């Protein structure tokens, strides 16, 4: 357990020397000159990401969703992005990131902020990576704003004459929105901007959400007496955060901004606002609600419960007023989505290991029971004084690991909590799960499919 | 240890207020008590075991997927060889894997003439068995109309094992050519 910022005094220095590398990085606080090797690793991160973005901008690629042309100024600089180049860059980025973490406690504040800002901006100027989800977000917004169609009842197929329809992923054409009414409302101003401007609007939103989450992580680390620089680097230079989360403009970043806002408010003992903030996060994406029981059990104040109740009543009222009963019920969609299966899910991988072709309905039930037990155990631990931030992070990690529908950005949920928690095992576990996810992407490197 | 997380908790982590009336074993604490670390050791051991299992499953799945990719490459090469359809316009074949059973039976479909994937009449071949010299055995096949998924009622012009297994749900539409590959007597 590491809390004290290093002061440079002999006992503190001796205590720091006994900590594991990552723990030492997170606890170190003094501003110093960044070692050249850390600078070199930062440059490798920038170069690997730059290559991915330049190649992604070159045109059609199996790694890019069909997208309106919006990064013409980068065209002609690279070759269309193939699996091999992408995976090699991803692995280089990951190795450089791992190396940088070893020096994270010795990186200066200025270098860390410059690096994270550079990575965010590089992704911002490039095309949408990996996922079609952002086009679903825009489609749902356009359904409501331009066509008067309720996105909580109909899928994008209801606006098949709209230009955005061509870019929505084929699996989601008939699916109504899985996101909370607050997110749908946030995305409404973007809808009338036109196709390309809408995507840019979503890019700005994702960039702001990423920046806000990182700023709040920094603030929370300081509130807990931790060195904010490693916390910033672990989250802001994370390969899945940058390439998959921000690259795909996922609204998980918006949810995490609300989540970290609630954590910062709780740490400032502003329980009313914290309760309201976490419920608002759940009305962006329902997953955020996982934090609420731990916040309530830890704080045990009526103001926290009152804040959550105020947030719930206002969000439900907004959802109901705008979208009817379907907009107010954010949890029914979880039942729908929990029946999905992705090839990257750990339950699917485990089923394959046992010689089964995939996950069966009975497995879904068993996984839900296991998740329920884990959450109950964490709630009990929190009641008995365990760090509620760590418990929340473990719960989010458990949701990701037990979900048969695992996507890269789900592994990010627990990361900002991990870097500010008092239990160092959490951040190590999140990074280990992410590493396994990245390893699982590498099959085309060993055996590409060629026509 | 952490400082008390609640205004009414004292430095030892004990709580005041209404919760103080609860039996000590279930009373909430402001901070965890220092113990012998047994629980932490057990938790850490469990976590390590879990990560180990997930790591084995992940690595196994990578090798499994690499084997499948190799098989799909052989499927595609076999499709090109048997249909005689090659070149840029015949890229992006649709390989339908049998994911619900343990078989390695794949159905490979592609356009018979220039067009977007699936936008023209398609010829589908059923692949089975091991990979031999980067090819697989095609046991038969059928045709599909443009822009329709591979469902039994859409299939016509069955040949090879597909004909003997009666996989086609419709007869060859008028004016449509459905000549099987040479290997199947076409």
In short:
Chain A is mostly helical and 451 residues long. Chain A is built from 22 helices and no strands. Residues 1-13 of chain A have low confidence and may be disordered.
Topology:
The complex is a heterodimer of chains A (451) and B (186).
Chain A: H1 10-18, H2 21-27, H3 36-56, H4 83-102, H5 109-125, H6 133-146, H7 181-187, H8 195-223, H9 228-236, H10 239-246, H11 252-267, H12 271-282, H13 292-299, H14 302-323, H15 325-328, H16 332-337, H17 346-353, H18 361-383, H19 388-402, H20 415-420, H21 424-440, H22 443-446
Chain B: H1 38-83, E1 94-97, E2 106-111, E3 122-132, E4 135-144, E5 156-160, H2 161-164
Antiparallel strand pairs in B: 1-2, 2-3, 3-4, 4-5
State the end-to-end CA separation of chain B. 80 Å
Query: Approximately how much beta-strand content do the residues of chain A carry?
Result: under 5%
Largest sheet of chain B: 5 strands, antiparallel
Order of helices and strands of chain B: HEEEEEH
Order of helices and strands of chain A: HHHHHHHHHHHHHHHHHHHHHH
Class by alpha and beta content of chain A: mainly alpha
Strand order of the largest sheet of chain B: 1-2-3-4-5
The helix count of chain B comes to: 2
Q: Assembly state here?
A: heterodimer
Structural class of chain B: alpha+beta
- Largest sheet of chain A, described in full? none
Most extensive interface between two protein chains, with residue counts: A-B, 44 and 48 residues
Separate helix tally of chain A: 22
Rg of chain A to the nearest angstrom?
Answer: 22 Å
Could you report the average pLDDT of chain A, rounded to the nearest whole number? 89
**Helix residue percentage of chain B:** 25-40%
E-strand count of chain B? 5
N→C terminal distance of chain A: 53 Å
- Binned, the helix content of chain A reads 55-70%
